[in-house]
Structure formats: structure tokens, C-alpha cells
Amino acid sequence: MSSIIAPTTQTLPKQMNDTGLRIALIFTGGTIAVTTDKNAGPVPNLKGSQILERIPEVGRYLPNVETIVYDFSVLPGPQMSPSMMINLAEFVSAVLEDVDGAVITHGTDTLEESAFLLDLCIDTKKTIVFTGAMHHSLDAGWDGGRNLIDSLGVAASKAFQNEGVLTVLGGSINSAQEVTKSSTTKSDTFRSLDFGPLGSVDILASVTPSKLRSSRQRYHIPFNDEADLPRIELFKTYVGMDDHLFAFAIKEGVKGIIVEAMGQGNVPPGALNGIARAREMHIPVVICSRCPSGAVRPYYAYEGAGRDLEKLGCLFAPYLNGQKARLKLMLALAARYEDIKLASIFSLD
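User: That's the sequence. What structure does it adopt?
Assistant: C-alpha cells below.
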């Protein structure tokens, strides 16, 4: 990861009454930072000031907001890692001491994971918003400018304080706990498939952010920066799955396993054998669903069904996808959570 660069302050023209709002604008890379190189193709290489040069509307539509710009990194989403996300969480926590809120630009491929991890790690009433773009700045369909303006508007809105980390893309405001990337290309890809958005926003239409509901119950996991992040594997079930992936993971010293089960939380008999072996080794196993929406629960009673998994001591994460459950288990084990406490944090989902 590139080193953190000293911040630059950009004070926007104040054409209305000065509210004194200061918002940190933290750039980490992603498609919003992409330009096209005729030899290499689209790659993220724009720093924050260069992105803002492409969005002169910021000063016109948000005249009462002072932004403090930070270049944290210039990375595509897939190059983020849990340790980098922890570094980002620590950085944002420090920055929040001197501002009223924060907007973080991020590659959309892993945006939901970074947003979720920060929501777990950072305990604050101030608004933190993740945003990005599905089309780069030289594309006729570039959505980065609007997304960034909308995000600043949400971060400056009192209505969304104490709602946890949010995502703002395509005019939709969602909770980091619930949102997922639902399409590879659509601009409105970020959706809360089970519960719907928290609100909507269109600052370019001179409309203030509209709130539909509050976030669901959230859970804070304090992170010790001296703790090592444990290895957690994520397995997606499939027809005829056996136990060899579980056996290999156990042999390699895995500390936890996330299983994206079928339907409401069911696995093939062969996979059940692998899960049973992991539980014999006292390795936590968390059950999600490979379905994009809906809860998991120990409902059916046939071999490999949810009731078998419950008897083995597996944990059920009702509305959490696999990639988020992995991060949650990783942080919980790093914080030395054990059986009862682990069960309590996943039952909230």
C-alpha cells in the first residue's frame, strides 16, 4: 500500500450562511480514480485533488462544506486486504477527531467489505460514508462526480448521524451492515436486498438527503492493533461437495470457517463430514447462505440440514453474506471472543 500523504485542505466557496461543517474526504483508489492508458488500459492513478478538478459542481452545490482532502492510497478494490482495512479504520478514527464526518472513496469490488469492517471497528456518532464509481472519469457514463457530491451531502446531514457506516452510490443510501454489490456493471449496483435503503439523495437536484428508516442493530468489536488477524476460510457449497476442502484447511491451521450453505442453511452430506471434523477441533464454523437474500436458520432435519449443523455447534448468521461474516469472525477471534460471545454477535444478524 502506498504511504499516507500529508493532507491538503480545500475550502469551498461559501455562498450561504457558514455552518462550519468540516468533512474529511479520504481517497483510496478504485474506478473513481481511474484514467485510461492506451497501453495499459484502465487503471486507478488519480489523487484526490485531480478527481476534484473533474467535479467543479462540489463548490456550487455544497457551499457550506469545507473538505479536508487525504490521499490514503491509490488502489483497485481487489488489492485491498484485511490488514489494509484495519489501517484505514485507524486512520479514519484519528481524522474524525477534528472533523464532523468523513467520505471515503473506494474500489467497488471490495467496498462493502471495507465499509463493514469500519462499521465494526469504529464506534462513533459521526457519519462515515463510502462511495465510488462504476464508470471511470473518461467514460460518458461517469457516475463518480454525482456519487461524491451526494456522499458529502449525506455526511453533512444531521439526519444520518449515529447510523453507522453508510454507502452512497446511485442516489441510494444504505447501511454497511446490509448492503452488497448486486451487479457487475450497473450504476445502482449497491443494494440492501433484504431491508431496502436507509434513504435517498440527489444533491444535484437541490434535494437534501431523505431518510426512510434507521439502521438495524449494530455491534462494535474493539480492535487491538497488536493482535494478529487469524486465518479464516470461506467455502461456498455446491452439489456433491465433500470434505476435502475442510480437511485441507484444518491441516493448514485455519482458525475459523465460513460456509455459504444452500437455501436456509443446508449442506451436502460430504460437506457435513468436513464441518463435523472442524467442530471436533473446536474450530468455529459460521453458516450463511449462498442465496443473495433471505435468512439462514436450523429448520430442516435431514442429513446435512440446518438442525445437524446446529447440533455440531455451528453459528448461524441470518442476514450476513459470506465475505462479511468472514471479516466479523476474523475481528471477533482477534479480540479473543469465545463460544457464548461469538454466538451473541452472529445472532444479531
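The CA atoms of residues 244 and 274 lie 7 Å apart.
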